Each structure stands twice: as C-alpha cells, then as structure tokens.
Amino acid sequence: MKYIFSFIFFIATLSNAQEKKFGEYTFQELLKVSNLSFKMPRGFKETKIIKNNGHLYQLAIKDSATGFEARYYIKPYALFFPKNDVTYKENPMTYNFFVSSLLNVSGYILPEYPHIDIIKPEYVKYDMNADYGLNSFFEPKSKFAEGYKYCLAAAIRKDSVGEVYIFMLYNIQNRETRIIIDDILSSVDYK
Fold first, then answer.
1. Residue 136 sits in which domain range?
2. b/e burial code for range 71-80 (CB count within 10 A of at least 16 → b)
3. Considering the domain boundaries, does residue 15 fall inside one?
C-alpha cells in the first residue's frame, strides 16, 4: 500500500511538473506556440529584462550605438483561451489590453492620454501577415521606461493565433529613427 501511494504521488508530481505556467515559457517557446518568426534587427543584441510593475515582457533587445531598446510581449491565445472560446477567433480585448498597457507604460498621465492609431489592415497583412494592428507614440513617465524620453508602442494581432506587443524606447528623434523603428516592427512575422 505504501508503494501505491508513493507511485501515485510520483505520477501526480510528474504531471504537475510538465504543465508550465504562462510566465515560465521562454521567448523562443512563445514564438513557436504563436507561429511567429523573429529576426534580430541590425545592430541589436539581447539585453536583460528589468523587473517592473509597468508591463511584463519576455525579450529586450538594445542597440548600443543608438541607445534604442525594444521590448517584446507575446500573448498566444492557445495558452489563454480554450479552443472553442469565441475570444480565440477575434479577440475584441486587444484594444483594451493595449490601452491598459499604454496607461501603465505612460505612467497614468491623464488627461494626456496617449493617442492610438489603428494600422490599416492591408499594412499589417503585408508586413507581418497579421489581421489587426495598433500603435501609439508618447513620452513615457513610468519606471518601465526609466531613462527614455520617447516610446512607440505597437500591438499586432493574428486572429485565432495571438498578439504581439512591442515597446520601442529611445531618446533621440532623427532620420535614422524611422529606419530603426521599421527594422524593429519587421522583426516579428506570423508564418
């Protein structure tokens, strides 16, 4: 009898050990679950993730020459919703989650609420093979963006697959800025 309880305990422990919580997935695993590809932008290298209360993210990359930093948060629907859930198909909460993220990253600066643009569907389809996109430019005032003057945030959704949130943090606006932003935005692509 003692061995049966030991065996049952071992099996229960083993099955619990195999189930990961969302925060335990690596960036590479989340790419795979979300059917995404990632290409490191020119001049960027992975940098450490800074724990903060502003917004979670799974990858941070930085260009030491320009000081640009990009932070990625991948939200695969397969890890959040049952397959027969209506939100799995077209998640109406993408906009709300983006607004919540902007409020956290901007430092809750109201009434100077960050302006949000909906990206034309043909652009997100062509550039990232996605179905829906949002972006917002603002001056962040939170610990999340400490040391940075500007933030361009983007949310990209692929229906039935998931969402990617990218926060681009930088201090200088010039001609090169647009090129760097384009490189960062084209670094992720739904397959």
1. 21-190
2. bbbbbbbebe
3. no
